[in-house]
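Dear support,

Our group has been running a series of protein-ligand predictions, and this particular one with protoporphyrin IX containing FE is the one our PI (initials K.S.) wants archived with full inputs and outputs. We had some confusion internally about which version of the output was final, so please treat the block below as the authoritative record. The input we submitted was:
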Amino acid sequence: MALRNGPDEFGLVTRLLHWTMMLLIFGQLALGLRLERMEPGLANLWLYGLHKTVGFTLLALILIRITWHLASPPPAPLGPHNALFWAARAAHWTIYALLVGIPFTGWAGSSATGIDVMIADRWTAPPLVEASEAGEAFWFGLHDALTKLLMALLALHILGALKRQAEGDGTLTRMLKGRV
Ligand code: HEM
Ligand code: HEM
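Confirmed final output from the archive:
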């Protein structure tokens, strides 16, 4: 079983990163949407801590994934080089950019609250911005907008994958098993 990607093949490392991150991102989005409707207090502070720790884990994983893809480029989408092919590529690149940008906006918003940003209750992440109410509103507003964009793109991404599976072109099989 190949670890690296090939011209027509997704290697094991890419597939593990794709499906592990998928699980973490779905959990993170669901948790974020709960936090949005909560007032922070002593009873739920651990949920904020959990969201931040998973967010930093996702930031590390996306940086590993981008580095890995520079070292071992994933295969191009299957099928003719039509508008859908380029739409799929653009969606993948935008998803990478969002997965880098979103954790930084969450980190900046959390820094702006003036409270220490903790990772796994153990390490303190350095503040990215000075504490201010305006900064908090701006960075969390951006965090919110970018996560909504991510959700919309993921819906398209998943619909696209299911459509191609229904058409039987092997796209989903290749992300699950490596090759068609
Ligand atoms: C949080 C959820 C997800 C994210 C962030 C995500 C992201 C990505 C990205 C960036 C790629 C490009 C290749 C790579 O970097 O590994 C990709 C490929 C792919 N994803 Fe997802 N994905 C998610 C969920 C899903 C789900 C639920 C499905 C299936 C229903 C799926 C099916 C695929 C397939 C089939 C490919 C290969 C496309 C091709 O051959 O061009 N993904 N995904
Ligand atoms: C890929 C990583 C992340 C995803 C997908 C994500 C997703 C979300 C979502 C969907 C929300 C609800 C919408 C909103 O109010 O903004 C949210 C809220 C929040 N996120 Fe994240 N987040 C991520 C990383 C982080 C990180 C790294 C931090 C901090 C270090 C963070 C801190 C917060 C906080 C404090 C809230 C609550 C904001 C409020 O009360 O309005 N997030 N996140």
